[in-house]
Amino acid sequence: MGAPPRPPRGRRRKEARTRRAPRPRRRTEGPVGPGGHMSGGPAEAAVRSALEDALRRMGVEEPDVHLERPRDPAHGDLATNVAMTLASTLRKPPQEIARELAAELSLETAGVERAEVAGPGFLNLHLRADRLSEDLRSLVAGDEGFGRSEVGKGRPVMVEFVSANPTGPLHLGHGRQAALGDAISSLLQWTGWKVHREFYYNDAGRQVELLARSVRARYLQHFGRDVSVPEDGYHGDFVTEIAQELADEKGDRFLDDESSQALSEMRAFAIQRIRQDQDRDLAAFGVRFDCYYLETSLFEDGTLEATIDGLREAGLVYEHEGALWLRTTEYGDQKDRVMVKSDGSPTYFLPDVAYHTTKWERGFHHAINVQGADHHGTVTRVQAGLQALGLPEGYPEYVLHQMVTVERDGREVKFSKRAGSYTTVRELLDEVGVDVTRYFFLMRKPEAHLVFDLDVALDQSEKNPVYKVQYAHARMCSIFRKAGVEGDEVDPAAADLSLLTTEAERELVKQLLEFPQVVETAARHRAPHLICEYLEHTAGQVNSWYHSGNPTRNPELAVLVEDEALRKARLVLVRAVRIVLRNGLGLLGLQAPIRMQRESS
RNA sequence: GCGCCCGUAGCUCAGCUGGAUAGAGCGUCGGCCUCCGGAGCCGAAGGUCAGAGGUUCGAAUCCUCUCGGGCGUACCA
């Protein structure tokens, strides 16, 4: 066979505006984009602007100050490496620049007690105690909104996730997607985006056809006929269950009816049952969608034809061996792709492209698809198809996650009964519960393989990270009960927060104040695991602080000390902890329990 | 073959824009614990950041190559 025909030259040249090698889409290049400063609390903002003023006085025109919280408390509350980054443009040694900056900095307006040059050119800043107190007050004032920001400016973004075919129960991969998609959606909401959650149903095409044939086979078997499920059909128990229900509801009316009408009725029945099943699991998992988009609707409303027409107009469509191809290689794909097979039916690729055009047309100029990495082959071609239609390069953005395996005693387990070859979300939910399942799906970055350790998941002690965080929250509530006060009524204005002087307390306050930045970073990187990590770390600090006040050993470090003023101040800190943990857990879709109840075994 | 992802402590994993002595949990070892909430607390040991080269004042992080693992590479979804 010769090479496929090529479109007319002039046309092609015009349309082929970009012809570059495929480039991996970094998750950091999404809607929020890199760059732009993270907020930080009022104290940090004051430090930043004071540093910028000082730098301007030193002749730096557009100072770009990066502030970080040093790991080592001895290195101050905040540190900047700006002297090192300016060394080449100012042509001076970093340490000298840092010394100048320290001298030029107005400590008063920065709210800084002292500034020290350290290491290769860091400027370490120790905040005045009152600045930390102010930030703590604003944290409590923020309450349920603490951690939210407006960087998204209310722009719409669609997050598509799960999008399971209606051909069986949801499996672990879908579970991870449900958790990820929902958490990423929440993160975007928390950072000021208008989020639309969508589920795309591939209810057309070959797979549902196979499902229908499989159900029919089981149905006929039910009536004693000697038929077998198609080789490439669905063999799980759920197919038999559906066939059983079909027989219960419709009797034997399909028994000798081999018409396509009968098959399509059976298909509709099966799809409806499976969707019900999936919906129930998603509801149990606590995930809601704003829209379920049906692939079949693209056939019905003419979107498919319109898409083909659009692609023809772009001059990138050609026929070859009876099939209709799209020249996706124009946009970096490894080979051209078939849109319509020689038998006249479309491949999944065409509706996929058509579907994504509707996202754009519905006003979602930012779209994120959460998918399993086993589908990564589709990314380039779908983006290519969309680019051919004039949509921007890199639309939509993809978050691809790796596979999930379940382990017990260090060995992989597959405890599926219903699905045949895979473990279902339902089975996992029944085994370990919603909160643990969600958290475990989120605690690793999406692109890393996830090992779901059942031994840890079933452990109800603080070795289980979920319980560790929830315990810390419950403990704070417990302290309020013990103190006989309503946590929400603990008033920072009525307390002298300068009494929070121990290192553990100061470090804890700083940790809590970091929450908004963590949310922003996690949202920008589509990385819910950063929230998990933050919560675990925070809970560790909280628990350690709490335990340091052991009544028999160090009663003076307990929250509920005799000293009324100190007690009030510490109760404010307890309230702040509770706010942050509750907000963080809520963001991930987890409960923040007032008290923990263990199941006795 | 080509493309994408991954490789950090015994295990599971963090590590933000390239920054100071690479962190956490589990496990191991050593202490403590009739505690505001229960399998808890404190501490210790444990590293050639897969390997090699490069860029840089500075690399786990950026670039190139090699090795190892996973996935993809259909007129399947």
Describe the structure in your own words.
The structure is a single chain. This protein has 601 residues and is an alpha/beta fold. Among the domains are: 42-143, Arginyl tRNA synthetase N-terminal domain (Gyrase A, domain 2, 2-Layer Sandwich), CATH 3.30.1360; 206-285, no CATH class; 465-587, Orthogonal Bundle (Isoleucyl-tRNA Synthetase, Domain 1). It contains 23 helices and 15 strands. It has a five-stranded parallel beta sheet with strand order 7-6-5-11-12. The chain has a four-stranded antiparallel beta sheet with strand order 1-2-4-3. A three-stranded antiparallel beta sheet has the order 8-9-10. It is globular. The N and C termini lie far apart (69 Å). 43% of the residues are buried. It binds one RNA strand of 77 nucleotides through helix 9, strand 9, strand 10, helix 15 and helix 19.
Search tags:
601 residues; alpha/beta; Gyrase A, domain 2; five-stranded parallel sheet; four-stranded antiparallel sheet; 23 helices; 15 strands; RNA-binding
Could you provide a short overview of the structure?
This protein has helices spanning 9-15, 42-57, 82-85, 87-90, 94-104, 107-110, 129-142, 172-190, 206-222, 237-250, 260-285, 295-300, 303-313, 349-361, 377-388, 425-432, 434-442, 454-458, 465-483, 503-513, 515-524, 529-548, 564-587, and strands at 67-68, 78-80, 112-118, 122-127, 156-160, 194-201, 291-294, 317-320, 323-326, 337-340, 367-372, 397-401, 404-408, 411-412, 450-453. With 601 residues, the protein is an alpha/beta fold.
